[in-house]
Amino acid sequence: MVAATHNDTYKETAGRIAELSFAIGVYRPPSEGGSASLLLRVTENCPWNKCTFCEMYKGHPFVYRSVEDIKADIDAVKKIIDEITAASEKMGQGGRITRDVGMSILRADPSLNDNQYFITVFNWLYSGGKTAFLQDADSMIMRPQELVAVLTYLREKLPTLTRVTSYTRSKTLAQRKPEDLLAIRKAGLDRLHVGLETGDDELLAIIHKGVTSAQQIEGGKKAITAGFQLSEYWMPDLGGRERWRQHAENTARVLTEINPHYIRSRPFVPRGGTPIFTEYEQGRLHISSPHERLEELRLMIEGLNVTSRICFDHQMNAWTNRKGGLLFIQDYEGYKFPEEKPLVLELIREGLSIDESRHVDVKDLISLSSL
Ligand code: SF4
């Protein structure tokens, strides 16, 4: 009789892992990026899918997934975790997730290098296994009792989770009953990421956002009352030169009313294949210059009366400072308002004081991407 070698043991582990899979979507906020968050797809694509600037889910129909299927995915994740933890114990590492554990499993079956389920779960565990992000575009569209069932199961199966977050729409939040929002919050959904884009009603109608500023305020306030942490994303220059003033003023008005925990800037870039790109190409929408974008930003920031954190955590917030570095820090915590409002306004003044040619111009990026 031949004794099983360590490699045989890991081969068996790798073989069992290779049988497992779960749904993973493409999109998540940068703050849930890297390996930090476990990505779980509770619905597929976007139930609205009509915003004229958005290319993310175009051509992909919305799919409402059953609780059974989502639970099966959570079970698959749990099995992969258990396999990796057991391998660690066999190595004498006491269940700790180390590089050696990962390498031993990969050496036994190098094909797992291309297995996104193993790689995702291993990297997530290696990063601490603390946060999860529910995909895709609007998880709150799920029937409340079904979302509660999914969250309860997720928290029970993965007890190391300290934060679960998701995308949703203002309109969906506005439609939800306060008691349903409370139940979802209590079941373990902590943070919501909402694409506000603009608080200007005319612009909201033009971009087919499918929501009014009154509904944005209602949805945002209801989420905060239910105890969610709320991240709202706005899009500088979405109205172009034609509507920059109303865009800035009304976005500040709506965000001040909501007073979310985070306000995140996502400067507008027309993406090929979207209706708004055609508007731009045909000269009906004019993109602002870097200084004009800063003027718009100044108007918006001046109008904000919030206790939020203001974040520029995206590479398109690419204005330059006097030393040639980035004008704004691009981390996920940003600037605390109102304390750091004077600092942000001072940075905007700095950006406006340097020659415009030293800033990144979105128009150049668009022409580069269409070469
Ligand atoms: S709701 Fe969000 S994901 Fe859906 S089309 Fe609009 S921007 Fe895109």
Short description:
The protein is α/β, with parallel strands linked by helices and 371 residues long. It is built from 14 helices and 10 strands. The protein folds into 2 domains: 1-168, no CATH class; 188-371, Transcription Regulator spoIIAA (2-Layer Sandwich).
Overview of the structural elements:
By secondary structure, the protein is an alpha/beta fold. The protein has helices at residues 6-18, 67-90, 99-108, 116-126, 144-157, 170-175, 178-187, 201-206, 213-225, 240-258, 275-281, 290-303, 341-353, 362-369; strands at 37-41, 43-44, 63-64, 131-135, 163-168, 191-197, 229-234, 262-265, 309-311, 335-336. The longest helix is centred in the first third of the chain and has 24 residues, at 67-90. The chain binds iron/sulfur cluster. Iron/sulfur cluster (SF4) is lined by residues 46, 48-51, 54, 56-57, 137, 169, 195.
